[in-house]
Amino acid sequence: MLLNSAFRAALLLASSLPSAFGMAIPYNIAGLKSRALSTSPASVQTFESTNNAYPRVTALSDGTLLLGYAHNDGTTRALDILQSTDGGASFKPYGSVASRTDNADLDNIFLLEVGSTSPPTVLAAYRNHDKDSSGVYTYFRITVSKSTDGGKTWAFAGQATEFTAASTGGWGVWEPFMRIGSDGKVQLDFSKELAANNQQTYRTLSSNQGSSWSSPVNLLTHASNVNLRDGMVGIAKVTDQQDGRAALVIVFETTTRGDGIFNIAYAVSYDDGASYSSAGVVYMPSGTRQAGAPQIANKGTNGVAVVFMTDEGLSDQNWPTVAQIKTVTSDELRGGKLTWSSPQLVSSGSTYSHWPGVLSFSGKILSVYDQGGAIVAKYLSY
Fold first, then answer.
1. What architecture does CATH give domain 42-179?
2. Is the pTM higher than 0.70?
3. What is 219-381's CATH number?
4. 304 pLDDT above the threshold of 80
5. Which of 151, 165, 163 is nearest to 119 (CA)?
6. Which first-to-last residue range defines the signal peptide (predicted)?
């Protein structure tokens, strides 16, 4: 049964509102064979059946899963929460993080449990921008809301970053990703536009569960003298099998082949995300075909899995509208390098699919994405 906007309103506790140093990156997937991929769908029940997008999922310490996504019906923009109490076999409506009916851009939700409370304390980071009546951006924010009851009700926590559009010439911030650093602080990475063809990854830190944030630092996922549009970051913690060092692998979309033509890259950090190595390629489509919006999760003991959207293999070409979800894997990080499998298809059917998220928990990998305005969840077995 679908739940309407009135029910959502009752649930809502108002919230306020790595380095590519040149234009050529070697691409090599030799030596790693793709294993057969099977998918098993989960049942997803959303507040509304259509106009849903950009899902992200997280596992909580009480055994539940939360799935956040954006809903836009043309009048109301909302960030809703679904809950699973059966290990991810099904998701049902649970709460609402934020909702706006004014000239707003509310999207890009990301969820993270913080602390060790019962019920769990959860942060939600998201873009929360203002527009004027003609649709021109006037103010940019990455807002953070907080739930102390496992994701059911939410309250404003803080602004990870905010500024007027006039102060940057209209260039904004997008796509937050959060993790807990080795020092216990919340790390929030986001994409910041510097020009139409130039976007970098920035990081800000919080030591008080999102109430206040440090000044954002440019991680220079590409060199400052090169224009590339890096974005949509995802991060997984691994161990380098060559020397046993703890490492982070960051994946992101970038424009190595030229403005507006996207591929997937990765870089490695050995200092808990403060800096990253020069980039390598995760997936490079042929010709002018596109690949973007990657997310990454741990796979097995030392491997990782990346999900992303691409138009390669489709007859039409109208990025990012025309896209489907694919995945690649790597068995281990060794000497700062990952070797990737060939891509395999995750989404099915003729309806285009977009904006995937991925979660590794309890030995399983769960991919979520939107397809035709509905939220889809599938378990991936490689």
1. 6 Propeller (2.120)
2. yes
3. 2.120.10.10
4. yes
5. 151
6. 1-22
